[in-house]
Amino acid sequence: MLRMRCPECGAEVRDEQAVFCARCGHPLADPQGAVTGSIESDDSRTTELGSTSDLAAGREGASDRRPAAATDEASESAKGDPGNSAPALLQHAAFPVRDLLGSVARSLRTGGWGEATVAALIAFAGLLLVGLVLLLGAKMEFPDLGAGANPLKVLTWVVMIGLTVLGAPLNLGDVTASAFPLGALLAAGLFIIWAARNSLRGRDAYTRGRRAAEAAKIGLPFGFVCWLAAVLFRHDLGETVVSVGAASALLLGALWGAVFGALGGLQTQESLRTSVGYSMGRIRSRSISIYEGILGAIVMLGTMTVLCAIALLLWIIISLARGAPGPGFTIGDAFAGIIYLAAFIPNLLVTIAALSMGAPIQAGAQVTVRGGSIGALQEFSVFQWGDSGAAWFALLLLLIPLVSCALGGFSARRSTAATSATFEVLGSAASTFAVVLGSLAVLARARLGAGLVRQRGFALVEPDAVAVTFLALLWAAAAGWVGWKLAGSQRPHTVDERGRGGA
After folding, report:
1. Which pLDDT tens digit goes with each residue over 377-430?
2. Within 13 Å of residue 396, how many CA atoms lie on the same side as its CB?
3. Chain centroid offset of residue 241 CA
4. If residue 2 lies in a helix (H) or strand (E), which one and from where to where?
5. How far apart are CA 131 and CA 143, in angstroms?
6. Cβ(495)–Cβ(417) under 8 Å?
């Protein structure tokens, strides 16, 4: 019986069609398929293989290779297991570590985290720009602020003010103050949206949900950058250290980064209006009553925003006409007031909306010291204005929710032909209206200066979110029902034209 052996290690090859040795991997055939191994003859049987001299040569070659193979095997057994030596253990242990690091690097590259990190850095630069504008406003109101400060201290204040835009508290030793400038937050959000949208370039095949999820990844690195900035940038005033809460910066940075990032992801292939229209279309396909109620709530909120803006403008004009805020008011205070007004204008609109519905607001110089609140606060409403009663013209603010909610109910009735869906439509409208205003009231905590509330310094202005939510629900239900009835009286009741069968 003829056997083939590997020319390298001498191992017997049982597969006659094998190309490589199963033991050492050495090639058994040349590129043309010629066998390079040796063939030996079985001692018990002989086979004619050409001439006798060729057979003898084959036997001699085989006998020469057998001792070499035995020697190699003995050498391998003498060395033992290569893993027993310390250098070999270190070498083999390094392989999983390198593989793990390589896998992490590949996942970061292929998972979009590299683009998200770059977008987070760009968004943080935009946040610093917003902080710089707010610091400029404070400098205009207080010209001596930061006099003689070096660039590093200026950068420190810019970073800290930028982080407070996200809602992180500012700590001055044991004193803690916080605010939520929604206007400044929206400005910073535009930078996040722009950075997130650009990070998804070249990935147009994503669905809406996938685009939003991919762009929301910016929240994690953005939160980490905010945390790192809060830890590194602190201002030492000797006995007092001014800093921003690092944990709050981390959580709020990740939250707002993810929210605005998702909005940016939705705008990579379509406008935000198209995305909202798509979402409203899905709601309409599931429940036409909820859809029409949400449309009615949008009319209520839009009308209230316009009326509150008019009321704010009238308040500013009347205050200036009466000589407020005082003789010490300078041109710098005027520019500072414009900056503060732009930063807090959504807060002011929500506050006016709260006042118009009868909800109380609190204003004063309250701060937190070692977990406790100190500082006097006064309560204002359309019925009670500080320590005295409200002026009669303050009652005119009640027209804002009355007109807004009645117009929303009127619009909802005009958009449907099903008179039996009154409860569903108005219930959906009132719930949406109350939830939106209540959520904004939670975020509407503001600290205003430049004579907007007090003649000098900053004052806390905060509406009662619980009262706002409850009163918004009542106003939307009551005034919305009035508008619904007014719209229904203008045309006869008809069956549902939209396929609901009057149900």
Report:
1. 677 787 776 566 666 777 889 999 999 999 999 998 887 766 667 888 899 999
2. 10
3. 30
4. none
5. 17
6. yes
**Backbone dihedral angles phi then psi of residue 437, each to the nearest 5 degrees:** -65, -40
Task: List phi, psi (to 5°) of 149.
Answer: -75, 145
Quick one: tokens of 354?
A: 């709260």
Beta strands (DSSP E) in 29-97 are 38-40
The SS3 call for residue 112 is coil
CA-atom Rg of the chain in angstroms: 38
The single-letter code of the amino acid at 475 is W
The residue whose two tokens read 């003859």 is: 41
Q: Hey, how many other C-beta atoms are within 10 angstroms of the C-beta on 55?
A: 17
Q: What gap in Å lies between CA 8 and CA 145, rounded to an integer?
A: 84
DSSP per-residue codes, 77-113: HHH--GGGSHHHHHHHHHHHHHHHHHHHHHHHHHTTH
- CA distances in angstroms from 83 to 4, 80, 365, listed in the order given: 32, 9, 72
Q: In terms of C-beta density within 10 A (0-12 exposed, 13-18 middle, 19 or more buried), how is residue 403 classed?
A: middle
d(CA 193, CA 265): 8
Cβ count within 10 A of residue 479:
22
Cα distance between residue 326 and residue 328, in whole Å: 6
pTM for the whole thing? 0.69
CA–CA distance, 123 with 254 (Å, rounded to integer): 12
Higher pLDDT, 80 or 110: 110
Query: CA angle 171-177-180, nearest 5°?
Result: 120
Give the helix/strand (H/E) hosting 447: strand 446-448
Query: Which residues have C-beta within 8 Å of that of residue 463, sequence separation ≥ 6?
Result: 350, 351, 354, 355, 359, 360, 361, 362, 441, 444
User: Which tokens is 249 given?
Assistant: 């910066």
Does the pLDDT value for residue 62 go beyond 50? no
